[in-house]
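Quick one from the shared queue. A colleague (R.T.) flagged Thioredoxin domain-containing protein as missing a structural entry in our internal table.

Convert sequence to structure tokens.
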Amino acid sequence: MATIELTGDNFTTHVQGDDILLVDFWASWCGPCKQFAPTYEAASEANPDITFGSINTEEQQELAAAAGIQSIPTLMAFREGILVFAQPGALPAPALDQVIGAVRALDMDDVRKQVAEQQQPGAGQG
């Protein structure tokens, strides 16, 4: 599956609707972004069951700001609507493959439990 362009109009739909969504935040003037692009595209072809999206931070400044992007490229991974990974920097192919494997292997019942515990008042105190 080829990489899809994510915008403010379709971002939430993909986060909530896709089992696994990887998102690459990039800009045309960013050298490391250009270096990472072929690696990301190759991973999208090798993993057709995962949605690979890209967000041009120049065109989607509000979306990048809402996501808290401070440096690019930044890779985020969502699983079942939950942000499970976020890291700036261009990843080499083996590291990207590790991220994909780790996201696939997550016990989402455990992740949802952890998220629920963090959202409770007073969580983490004591």
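Helices lie at 11-17, 31-46, 61-66, 93-105, 108-119.
The domain at 4-119 is CATH 3.40.30.10 (Glutaredoxin).
Added to the table.
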